[in-house]
């Protein structure tokens, strides 16, 4: 199914002239070998990019090569093949073995040029290349100073790049097919469903660096079964995955095109996700990392109009596909594959934003967080740097959150205890962490009739953990009001203990709050009255028989944090409203004074 969807995308890309020729891949070109029209002379032109400039790059012949005698590429290859420049360690002379290998590779490169010239009789470019090789001009070229064995060299005649000639493209495709064919094996291709010659191995690899990895980047194979223990029944390579040359090459070309796209991929620390659709649509995937108000509003409207995912699917049944890849040495690992209708995806993304949104009391608006910020907030907070420590989030969590967003599934079970431990350790509570708590506390995200925890202060919520968090927030507000310049708040001292064993802490802090309330009654009577009332309401909600709980469960600890932050958000909103009303009253008063009638 994956290869089938990739070949479908390849057909669209080919129609839009976005797909490179078969077995072509973008290569950086450091040198140009300029041949004369008759091929009897040639010169090297340095095309290396200066520092800060963009390197020159062009789609050029490519095929994955390995083994002790790797074959050359047509027209564009490294200096080791074109000029027999041997590989050598910095500061050390080339070994005799490296020199000999360079000569072998140059000979294979020359034979490949002549093989192409034989396929294009009468072509002036082919005749010039034939002369270039047979008269010894190629063998007589010397590598200029500064050239390395890995530098790519492209052949050019009269400003024509030879690797762009149709005859070269056709010849290179035939060469790769002959190298990668299944030794004459024929059968039914599982992708296109047609009988034909089958591949022995996937002809094209995934480009080095396309899949993030902590180790050394290298080309990777999507299907690599080179030991009997790996394959079903001991079969090697593509015996159990019959694919014809056309489907295999187009699928890999499409995959590399997606991996190179800035708009159709999402890179994580150790994986990459690419996505595409059956028909062109608006960029839904980008909404996860660029949650603009307009995009989120459209998704929420879609969710509220069709809350049932099955109904949304019938409205827009076009296909949406996403593929997540990791890397294990030189093998690509399929971490996730998603094939769902676009309508269902809109429903899932709308639910994602509704289930994690956070109310900002001071600005009196909802905040929707990009997925990367959610993943980052699960890591360690650095107070000195005032940011989360990069790489401290649990390994693989970002990918798990991505799947939860796309499938409307639950967030991983490990997230909640890990996040609570981080909050206790660094006492950092912000919008991303509250959003993660809301997601982790949702009882069933797949059921559209089940609601998430409230996104703002819920006065009907009577869970003991939630009530403890609210009470702690009120006690902290009393301290702030009485001692605005306090350096170590009760949150700094007691938050971690209060969220796990609240009984002793809250009772002690409530007694201590009497002194702060007494001070407020003297200095700020309106604040004293409001906070006294709020404190009495907070403690009155506890069960009269059970009282403040001695210990809180993991879920109750999460609700403690949620109640604490939502109480603070509500207080901020009330404070902001009072300030706005005060400013408006002052402005009205000034306006009235300015509009007083002039004396007669």
Features:
600 residues, 5-stranded mixed sheet, alpha+beta, 4-stranded antiparallel sheet
Q: Helices, strands, pairings?
A:
Layout: H1 2-15, E1 24-28, E2 31-35, E3 42-46, E4 57-61, E5 77-78, H2 79-82, H3 96-119, H4 124-134, H5 137-140, E6 152-157, E7 160-161, H6 166-180, E8 181-188, E9 195-199, H7 245-260, E10 265-267, E11 272-277, H8 293-305, H9 309-315, E12 319-328, E13 331-341, H10 342-356, E14 358-360, E15 365-367, H11 371-376, E16 381-382, E17 387-388, H12 397-407, H13 415-426, H14 431-441, H15 464-482, H16 490-498, H17 502-523, H18 525-540, H19 554-594
Parallel strand pairs: 2-6
Antiparallel strand pairs: 1-4, 2-3, 5-6, 6-7, 8-9, 10-11, 11-12, 12-13, 14-15, 16-17
Instruction: Give the rounded overall mean pLDDT.
Output: 88
Structural class per helix/strand content?
alpha+beta
Task: Indicate the overall shape.
Answer: elongated
Low-pLDDT segments? none
User: What share of residues are in beta strands?
Assistant: 5-15%
User: How many DSSP E strands?
Assistant: 17
Percent of residues in helical segments?
Answer: 40-55%
Describe the sheet with the most strands. Answer: 5 strands, mixed
Helix count from the secondary structure assignment: 19
Cα radius of gyration in angstroms: 33 Å
In whole angstroms, the N-to-C terminal distance is: 90 Å
């Amino acid at each position: 199914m994956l290869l089938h969807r990739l070949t479908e995308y390849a057909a669209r890309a080919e129609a839009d002239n976005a797909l490179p020729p078969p077995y072509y891949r973008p290569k950086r070109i450091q040198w140009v070998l300029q041949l004369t029209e008759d091929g009897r002379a040639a010169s090297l032109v340095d095309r290396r990019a200066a520092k800060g400039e963009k390197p020159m790059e062009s789609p050029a012949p490519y095929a994955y090569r390995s083994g002790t005698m790797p074959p050359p590429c047509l027209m564009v290859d490294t200096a080791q093949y074109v000029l027999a420049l041997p590989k050598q360690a910095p500061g050390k002379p080339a070994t005799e073995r490296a020199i000999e290998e360079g000569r072998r590779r140059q000979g294979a490169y020359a034979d490949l040029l002549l093989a192409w010239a034989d396929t294009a009789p009468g072509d002036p470019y082919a005749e010039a290349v034939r002369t270039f090789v047979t008269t010894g001009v190629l063998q007589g070229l010397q590598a200029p100073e500064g050239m390395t064995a890995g530098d790519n060299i492209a052949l050019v005649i009269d400003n024509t790049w030879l690797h762009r000639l149709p005859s070269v493209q056709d010849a290179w495709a035939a060469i790769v097919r002959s190298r990668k064919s299944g030794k004459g094996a024929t059968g039914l291709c599982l992708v296109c469903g047609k009988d034909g010659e089958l591949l022995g191995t996937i002809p094209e690899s995934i480009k080095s660096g396309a899949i993030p990895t902590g180790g050394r980047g290298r080309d990777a194979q999507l299907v690599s079964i080179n030991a009997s223990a790996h394959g079903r029944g001991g079969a090697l390579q593509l015996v159990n995955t019959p694919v014809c040359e056309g489907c295999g090459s187009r699928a890999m070309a499409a995959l590399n095109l997606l991996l190179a796209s800035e708009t159709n991929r999402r890179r994580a620390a150790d994986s990459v996700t690419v996505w595409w659709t059956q028909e062109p649509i608006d960029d839904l995937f980008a909404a996860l990392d660029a949650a603009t108000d307009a995009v989120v509003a459209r998704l929420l409207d879609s969710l509220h109009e069709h809350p049932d995912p099955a109904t949304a699917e019938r409205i827009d049944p076009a296909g949406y596909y996403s593929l997540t890849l990791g890397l294990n040495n030189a093998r690509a690992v399929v971490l996730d594959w998603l094939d769902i209708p676009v309508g269902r995806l809109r429903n899932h993304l709308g639910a994602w934003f509704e289930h994690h949104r956070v109310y900002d009391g001071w600005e009196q608006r909802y905040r929707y967080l990009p997925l990367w910020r959610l993943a980052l907030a699960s890591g360690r907070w650095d107070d000195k740097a005032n940011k989360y420590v990069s790489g401290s989030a649990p390994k693989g969590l970002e990918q798990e959150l991505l799947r939860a967003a796309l499938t409307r599934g639950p967030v991983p079970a490990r997230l909640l205890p890990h996040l609570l431990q981080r909050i206790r350790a660094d006492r950092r509570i912000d919008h991303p962490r509250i959003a993660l708590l809301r997601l982790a506390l949702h009882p069933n995200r797949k059921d559209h009739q089940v609601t998430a925890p409230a996104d703002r202060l819920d006065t009907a919520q009577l869970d003991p953990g939630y009530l403890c968090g609210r009470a702690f927030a009120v006690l902290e507000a009393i301290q702030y009001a009485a001692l605005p310049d306090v350096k170590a708040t009760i949150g700094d001292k007691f938050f971690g203990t209060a969220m796990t064993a609240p009984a002793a802490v809250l009772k002690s802090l409530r007694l201590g709050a009497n002194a702060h309330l007494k001070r407020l009654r003297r200095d700020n009577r309106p604040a004293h009255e409001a906070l006294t009332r709020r404190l009495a309401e907070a403690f009155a909600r506890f069960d009269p028989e059970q009282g403040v709980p001695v210990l809180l469960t993991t879920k109750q600890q999460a609700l403690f944090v949620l109640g604490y932050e939502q109480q603070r958000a509500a207080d901020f909103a009330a404070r902001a409203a009072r300030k706005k009303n005060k400013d408006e009253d002052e402005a009205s008063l000034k306006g009235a004074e300015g509009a007083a009638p002039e004396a007669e």
